[in-house]
Amino acid sequence: MKRLLRGGRVVDPANGKDGIFDVLIDGDRIESVGTNLTADGAEIVDVPAGFIVCPGFIDMHVHLREPGQEHKETVATGVASAVAGGFTAVACMPNTKPVNDNAGVTQLILQKAAEAGLARVYPIGAVSRGQKGEELADIAELKAAGCVAVTDDGLPVATAILARRALEYTSMFNMPMIEHCEDQSLKGDGVAHEGPVAASLGLRGIPGVAEAITAGRDILLAEMTGGHVHIAHMSAWTTIEAVRQGKSRGIKVTCEVCPHHFTLTDDLLAEPVAYDTNAKMNPPLREARDRDAMIAGIVDGTVDAISTDHAPHHYDEKNVEFDRAPFGIVGLETAVSITLDKLVHTGLINLSRMVELMSVNPAKILHVPGGSLAPGGPADITILAPDLQVTVDKTKLVSKSKNTPYHGWSFKGGVAATIVGGKVAYANPATGLLR
Amino acid sequence: MPVVMDAERISRALTRIAHEILEHNRGLSNLALVGVRSRGVPIAQRIAEDLRKISGEEVSVGALDITLYRDDLMGASVGITPLVRKTEIPFSIDGRTIVLVDDVLYTGRTTRAALDALTDFGRPKSIQLVTLVDRGHRELPIKADYVGKNVPTSRHESVQVKLRELDGVDEVLLQGKE
Amino acid sequence: MDVTQSPVAPPLTALRQRHLLGIADLSPEEIVLVLDTAEAMKEVGRRTIKKVPTLRGRTVINLFFEPSTRTRTSFEIAEKRLSADTLNVAIASSSVVKGETLVDTAMNLEAMSPSMIVLRHASSGACHLLARICKAAIVNAGDGMHEHPTQALLDAFTIRERKGRIKGLKVAIVGDLLHSRVLRSNVLLLTKLGAEVWVCAPATLIPPGLQQMGVRVTTRVDEAVEGADVIMMLRMQLERMQGGYFPSLREYFTTFGMTEARVARAKSDVIIMHPGPINRGVEIASEVADGAASVILDQVANGVAVRMAVLYLLAGGSENETVT
């Protein structure tokens, strides 16, 4: 079954394309990209003027919560949320119950994803058994079962020696070690960024350098071992300085930033809703200097990817005192709008850079297919409506959980449609495309 | 705004009341004045001064704040909380004749509150009431023993008492509500 | 005895907010209103019958998630003096761990239509959470490390009583600044009323951004108390030792303890304050705590009057206001 997407603006930096092109899809593959394409018997879809056709976006940091915490999210609801947010693939974190440190859990996740038949799911396995930070998990088994990377996310790899071993080991399999950078002794029982806002609200603080210290450790270990460390959800200006330095020395370090860390600051904890648990996540919202450093890194190329760290939590779990609320916010369905509104429309980055951050680089870092619209490649396509007015309504989110700080916010830019393996996984009723 | 009492009339009324107190109580033994805040207080002081001139005796004067005893405070839809001031009654009221002094007697609720407050301070032998102006429209069975002037009013009007100690001038005004 | 009053009544006679969540929400005029009202309330405490009928028929619930004898009894006496019906709910932290959340506990109590809930809780922001979900007016009796507004108000009342004013006084606050809710409330209040505030602690116990609150920060206690009109000691919580904030209590006392020698550097009529309970020989020497300059017991006495004022001013608000 062939489908021709005609006349859209194709932004495909991996193939040096940014212009009006037709995209011909055959089954689950891209057949060709060119001008004035014809295909007999193909379903013709005229892409509205101004819409952008890109290689499918890949969110490399998502918590799908299954197995074990299905009240927050399941693989099925998670991938539905992903495609509604324009993502054709997600990489999911191992801090499930039980932890994904074995083939059994990996296979369960893949099976659930196949049943849902929406976004692709690339499981990420644990670095240490049970994420206890003591012994390495069976990483080869995890890779064979389908994991694309390992992490102890939620926590940093507990010790330098374990991080060293993990980097050495994963380098054999060409897998990155993804690191949640946070020195636990400095973190203590902190719940917010250590700064004037937390001080005036009486909240225990987590200093920004807690993140930079672990990042620094791992970057040096990556240099020593030749392994690849990927710094997850960067939030502090000191961390990005360390990454910049590491890259300048040719070390295999990559990094990602989440939309809330390049748009929000810890002021949100005080206003408009004091002690809003929907502003509580780890790493926490920090100061303007940190947020601006993230933006600067996105602009100057230091930042490789935008991910969401989509962390669903049930309403009851968040409707408690700030100290007791779990860390995390959902993000799959707001990332594209935020990025278009705050980075592209402001002129900070262009669309090619956005596609690099959300498709090309995630695919490269995880060594998974995608990231381009090359003929023969998978027909994973994200179609953007950059001028669509979007107002976030948390009650209408596809995700099972509604813990977002962006409820009521308006953005210019949204998703028109998400195509996975040639199939329309999501079509936005507001744009009417592909319905 | 019609002036119902000017300074001279106020002064003569208070002097007359002082004489009446003396006569009614057959002297000043065991008697004390308690002014109801705010304007009852300077009136009480002036009466005490008149009593001293007439009889040569000093009479104790106290000040009573009845805000915390009002029955229209809590649950009022208006939501304005009157400022609470201190009560200063530096003498025992037990067994004494207490003469309450207020500026205007209207519904009688202020007097009721004052009676409740006084009862919390002790057990007077008897309580009498002085009011400079009685404007009628009682809602409780309260009666003044000594009245400066009866001023019949309608409910739409209000009586304003100004005293030089607080307002710089002595006069009683009758004001119609717009 | 002078029974005349000032001729002009102050324009403000009520608090603007439904709740007392913190000094942060009070304007200087509102703070002065509370202090003035507390003066009248203090007089009630000097009568033989220490009761006025003002809050008759109103139910006030003291919901304390942290143990506290002093603050709770102070609130209870204040409530009873205003003739309110008082209910003390003391929750051992273990029962919260067992399952009933703050939200559930509060909603169960709400169902009994209290006028006010006085809440003390170990989590900063707990009162804000309740204020969002309860119809009752919430009074913060101490939330985590955030604020303890009635403590700051009674401290201010005590200072004003002794010194006649707050503006322009040099106030030195010494102790665990990092974890203290009393500090935050006092800093907010004293700066709003124009005092010159100095805070002093070991560097390990100074929260970031304190200077932004308009205070002078020092780690040298002699500098802080030099020429001070008021010295306010904060309680050194002994469990801080576990956090490694300073090496030993002995060392803390030598470097930061309020001794008579240190007090001598302040003004000759300095007053010594402490929110209690005192750790003798840790943050303050016994001679200083019990000395002539100490107003620690006055603070306790004034606590009832100030709390009566707060309850009175909050209760007088309209019952029909919706929760925003």
Explain what the structure shows.
The complex is a heterotrimer of chains A (435), B (178) and C (324). Chain A has 435 residues and is of the alpha/beta class. Chain A contains 13 helices and 18 strands. In chain A, the strands form 3 sheets. In chain A, strands 1, 2, 3, 4, 5, 16, 17 and 18 form an 8-stranded mixed β-sheet that branches. Chain A has an 8-stranded parallel β-sheet with strand order 6-7-8-9-10-13-14-15. A two-stranded parallel ribbon of chain A has the order 11-12. Chain A is globular and about 65 Å long. Chain A starts with a strand and ends in an 8-residue tail after the last strand. In chain B, helix 2 links the parallel strand 2 and strand 3. Chain B has 4 helices and 8 strands, in the order E-H-E-H-E-E-H-E-E-E-H-E. Chain B has a single domain, classed as 3-Layer(aba) Sandwich (Rossmann fold). With 324 residues, chain C is α/β, with parallel strands linked by helices. Chain C folds into 2 domains: 140 residues, Aspartate/ornithine carbamoyltransferase (Rossmann fold), CATH 3.40.50.1370; 152 residues, Aspartate/ornithine carbamoyltransferase (Rossmann fold, 3-Layer(aba) Sandwich). The N and C termini of chain C lie far apart (47 Å). Chains in contact: A-C, B-C.
Provide key terms for this protein:
heterotrimer; A: 435 residues; alpha/beta; Urease, subunit C, domain 1; TIM Barrel; eight-stranded parallel sheet; C: 324 residues; Rossmann fold; 2 domains; five-stranded parallel sheet; four-stranded parallel sheet; 9 strands
Can you tell me the CATH architecture of chain B?
A: 3-Layer(aba) Sandwich
CATH superfamily of the largest domain in chain C: Aspartate/ornithine carbamoyltransferase
Work out the count of structural domains of chain B: 1
Q: Please, what is the oligomeric state?
A: heterotrimer
User: What is the H-and-E element order of chain C?
Assistant: HEHEHHEHEHEHEEHEHHEHH
Q: Judging by the overall fold, what is the CATH architecture of the largest domain in chain C? A: 3-Layer(aba) Sandwich
For the record, give the distance between the C-alpha atoms at the N and C termini of chain C, rounded to a whole number.
47 Å
The shape of chain B is: globular
In sequence order, what are the helices and strands of chain B, one letter per element?
A: EHEHEEHEEEHE
| Shape label of chain C | globular
Order of strands in the sheet with the most strands of chain B? 3-2-4-5-6
What share of residues of chain C is helical? 25-40%
| Alpha plus pi helix count of chain C | 12
